[in-house]
Amino acid sequence: MKLFTRYNIILMAISLFGLLLIGSLFYRLLGYYLDKQIDHDLVEEIMEVKEYASKGNFYQPHEFEDLVVQYKKIKKANPSSSYADTIFYNPVKHHTETARYLKTELELLGQPYQILVIASKSERQEQIQNICLIILVPVMLLFALVLLVNRILLKKIWTPFEQLLKNITAFNINHEVPYQPVEMPVAEFRQLNKVLVELSGKVKSDYNEIKLFTENASHEMMTPLAVINSKLDNMLQSNVLEKEHGETLVELYKATSRLTKLNQSLLLLVKIDNNLLQDKEKINLKSLIEEKYVYFQELINGRNIHVESVLADVSIYANQQLLEILINNLFSNVIRHNYDGGQVEIRLDPEKIVFANTGHNPALDPEKIFDRFYKDHASEGTGLGLAILKQICNRQHFLLNYTYHHDLHTFIITFKH
Amino acid sequence: MKILIIEDEPGLQQSIVQYLMSEGNQCSMASTYAQALERLGLYDYDCILLDLGLPDGEGLQLLNYLKRLNRTEGVIIISARNSIDQKIEGLRLGADDYLTKPFHLSELNARILAVVRRKSAHGERHIEFKEIRIDLDAKEVLVKGKLVYLTKKEFDLLLYFVANKGKVISKSAAVEHIWGDDSDMADSFDFIYTHIKNIRKKLTDAGSGDYFQSVYGVGYKFMEI
Question: Is the domain of B33 the same as that of B114?
Answer without folding.
Answer: yes
